[in-house]
Amino acid sequence: MTRTITTHAEIETAAAGRDLASRLSAGSVVLLFGDLGAGKTAFVRGLAEGLGIPAEHVSSPTFTIMQEYRGGRLPLFHVDLYRLNDSREVDDLGLDEIAADGALAIEWGEKLREVPDGAIGIRITDAGGDMRTIELSNYSDR
Questions:
Q1: How many CA atoms, within 13 angstroms, populate the side-chain half-sphere of residue 90?
Q2: What span, in angstroms and rounded, lies between the C-alpha atoms of 69 and 72?
Q3: Model's pTM, two decimal places?
Q4: Is 141:62 a contact under the CB 8 Å cutoff?
Q5: 3 state DSSP class of 133
Q6: Measured in Å, how far apart are the chain's first and last C-alpha atoms?
Q7: Within the chain, what is the greatest distance between any pair of CA atoms?
């Protein structure tokens, strides 16, 4: 089942993430898809805030590959696979082990060779200006 949301500002994109956070538990995996600048990190800021982590602590992990945020209901592991081109590099991150301890949000989820069971897919599309279309689905339904 897919649910579609249209947002009109970055704060609304973050609010969609906050809403999803209330349904996350240890082991939850959120795969984010969308072009550069689509709003993936804004969505993760909302996830963090929904877990009780200050949104201002969240930054894009494009160059560090992974950020870890603690202090909320669950730890949030935020991964950006954009710069990784080899599936072995992705496999070497050990994401399956990390996911067991908290919630895992992965930007550029299409770079995963194997998708964890129960993963939630979030596709964010720029709809012009500050508008975004956000499609939420169980990844296995795709």
A1: 19
A2: 8
A3: 0.89
A4: no
A5: strand
A6: 9
A7: 39
> What are residue 13's phi and psi, to 5 degrees?
-65, -45
In the structure encoding, which two tokens stand for residue 64, read together?
């560090």
Point out the residues of the chain with pLDDT beneath 70: 61-63, 85-95, 139-142
Q: Which two tokens stand for residue 84?
A: 């990784």
Query: Order of strands, edge to edge, in the sheet holding 103-107?
Result: 2-7, 132-138, 120-126, 29-33, 103-107, 76-80, 66-69
The two tokens of residue 101 are 């301890």
Residue at 66: amino acid letter: M
130 touches 124 (CB < 8 A): no
Q: How many CB atoms lie within 10 A of CB 113?
A: 8
In this prediction, residue 48 carries a pLDDT of: 97
pLDDT at residue 142, rounded to an integer: 43
Query: What CA–CA distance (Å, rounded) separates 142 from 123?
Result: 12
What is the reported pLDDT for 62? 66
